[in-house]
Amino acid sequence: MTNLPPFLRLGLLVALLGALTVLATGMGSSHMPPGRVAAALLGYGARMDEVIVWTLRLPRVALAILAGMALALSGALLQRVTRNPIAAPSILGITDGAAVGAVGFLWAFSDDANLLVVSIHWQPLAAITGAFAFAGLVTILAFLDPGGRGPLRVILYGVALAALAKAAVTLLMIVGPVYRAGQALTWLTGSIAAAHWSDVFVVAAGLAISAVLLLVARSTIRQLVLDTDSAAATGVPVGRAQVALLALAVGLTALAVSQVGAIGFVGLVAPHVARLFHGAFAGGYLAATALIGGVIVLAADTVARMIAAPLELPAGALTALLGAPLFLWLLLKGRRTHG
């Protein structure tokens, strides 16, 4: 595929995502063939079809795509900044930090009757705070350790803090309100079932801002492929660039998981698939990564809805089934390379 022109490869990904969007929108308790879905999307379908598509199904489909794009871009940036192919939000503790924030919110703001004393709409802010806090801890630990700024050491700090975050989440679920445990568990596994258009607009706005920032920084991102000394020799302020891109990656992760929960491994898988399909140094690599991330999460959510119908499995469970073996393969590959 990499012998095709970049614009054609991107076109194929857009076509795949479009076809999957129509297919996913038609899936549900009332199945709709692609023709009826297309008619409803274009505004000349039956009134009931338009209500089902635009009110019930399309927000979920759109949120899955946008969240997948945000997680995929975050993973690509983390892998570029750390120069490590196994860097990803779920590996560096960012996703688990967001989980601590979300579950801590349920624990801190529930009364004796297990009722929230503040609006549930503040939970995304708590998740974002947790994500930035744990990303900050990884950064501080790596900065304080003279030998900890290498790619492998950063990953190890992230894995250690991710384990700490998982333990904290478990304790919070045990000592917290029992009534909220199910809600917390659903969030932890990652689910898009409660999508609304307001959630879609929040993630879309964040992605639009991020796209502008990435466009402005595109030359710097390309230069970070080089080692630190070579990149600095080309005039890139390496330290500031790494901090800025790390902050953007954390922001993208927090934006996604605050709305759809801790869907893991998308940021690990999507950049690798993009490198195989599109090429890491071809024009539009980040766009390809984002499109593949959208395809992965939308496909996972669609399969999760249908595989055990009428029950709905969490989409995050399926992305983990895909991502965990890839993570192990990359670890073994790296060990053979350096062994």
List keywords for this structure.
ABC transporter involved in vitamin B12 uptake, BtuC; 339 residues; mainly alpha; single chain; ABC_BtuC-like
Describe this structure in words.
The protein is an all-alpha fold and 339 residues long. It is globular. The protein is 75% helix and 0% strand. The chain has 14 helices and no strands. It has one domain: ABC transporter involved in vitamin B12 uptake, BtuC (Orthogonal Bundle), CATH 1.10.3470.
Question: Secondary structure elements and their pairing?
Answer:
Elements: H1 6-26, H2 34-42, H3 47-82, H4 94-108, H5 123-144, H6 151-175, H7 178-189, H8 197-216, H9 218-223, H10 228-233, H11 238-260, H12 266-277, H13 285-306, H14 315-338
